[in-house]
Amino acid sequence: MDSTRWRATRNLALSALVVGSILSANGQAAAAPVGPDVSSWQHIDGRLIDWFAVKRSGHDFAMVKATEGLSYINPYFVADSLLMRAAGMARGTYHYARPQLPPEPQAALYAAIVLGQNGPLDLPPVLDLEHTGGLDPAALINWTHRYLNTVQALTGRVPIVYTYPNFWKTAMANTSEFTHYPLWIADYRGNDQPEVPGGWPTWTFWQTTDSGSIPGIAGRTDLNVYSGAQGDFARFANMGGLTGSS
After folding, report:
1. What is the pLDDT of residues 61-110, one digit of tens each?
2. Among 26, 50, 54, 229, which has the minimal tally of Cβ within 10 Å of its Cβ?
């Protein structure tokens, strides 16, 4: 088995282990909500994602790229959003940060495209922060505060921060100024828990692999698991009377 296939197999096994290890209050194993995150890269040759197949395979939510910088809009965002809703999947949406550009217009673009991110089946908005844009830590910390404050004002929800440990420890000087925001952490190293930087007490979502395979999605995709840190998933995702299980 080559190294790429070995890593994919290991991380898929890890995802299953994590899901099985999150316990309910009565001590019995609970099915932790899981789901992919997607962008235009998962629309190989322009194919749409079969969100009904994704849902049937046991996935409760998905994170969808909406915007990037000041000018990019995911051309599949609307189709994915509509089909996810039809399939009954909770939807998270994210903005890919370009910190070399001002934060407030990026937040406004994102909020305009996602139309608020506060309706039924909507998870909170997400900031995908993994580039410095040439800013030093102090300037990047300021940029991030400004973006998150603007998105929260425009959507009415506390945003989620997506990052990975080494980036946060270096580019953000491991600041603990953002611990009141839920954390979505990317860590593919095969541990039974991800590394949590920046003084966060825990993680909310964990991206366990970038090479997962899901029915309905062409090619490889990222896989994520919800920890329960924000309480009942159905409430967190504005699911109302719907349940978060498949």
Report:
1. 999 999 999 999 999 999 999 999 999 999 999 999 999 999 999 999 99
2. 26
- And the tokens for 83? 């089909």
Dihedral over alpha carbons 66, 41, 162, 114 (to 10 degrees): 10
pLDDT digits (tens, 9 = 90+) for 193-221: 999 999 999 999 999 999 999 999 998 99
Specify whether the CB–CB gap between 6 and 18 falls below 8 A: no
Structure tokens at 27: 């001590």
> What whole-number distance in Å separates Cα of residue 242 and Cα of residue 33?
14
Of the CA atoms within 13 Å of residue 189, those in its CB half-sphere come to: 11
Q: Please, are residues 236 and 123 in contact by the beta-carbon 8 Å criterion? A: yes
DSSP letter for each residue of 85-138:
HHHT-EEEEEEE--TTS-HHHHHHHHHHHHTTS-STTBPPPEEE----TT--HH
- Residue 17's nearest CA partner among 1, 34, 37, 2 is 34
Residue 151 belongs to what H/E stretch? helix 137-155
Quick one: 95 exposed, middle or buried, by C-beta within 10 A (0-12, 13-18, 19+)?
buried
Q: How far apart are CA 241 and CA 50, in angstroms?
A: 24
Residue 240: band (very low, low, confident or very high) from pLDDT cuts 50, 70, 90:
confident
The C-alpha atoms of residue 145 and residue 167 are separated, in whole angstroms, by 17
Q: What dihedral do alpha carbons 33, 97, 41, 93 form, nearest 10°?
A: 40
Reported pTM = 0.87
